[in-house]
Amino acid sequence: QATEFGLPVPNIEPIAHAPCNPGSPNATSGQAAYDAIITATNLVLDGRARALATAPIAKMIGMAIGKAGWL
Hints:
With 71 residues, the chain is mainly alpha-helical. The protein has two helices and no strands.
């Protein structure tokens, strides 16, 4: 929808095809979420994106990949 307003949208390859089981994070889905946040952050820092928004991020995701406190 952003392109309908003339806003550029970066083309990003999928980071991972993680199994999705809502409410039950695991190491694979947690790593995919973490990688997506890092990729988006780098796009902003590199000037390829101007903003970053996320949905709420479950603390369990960080715990599932051993990065609690980093998300």
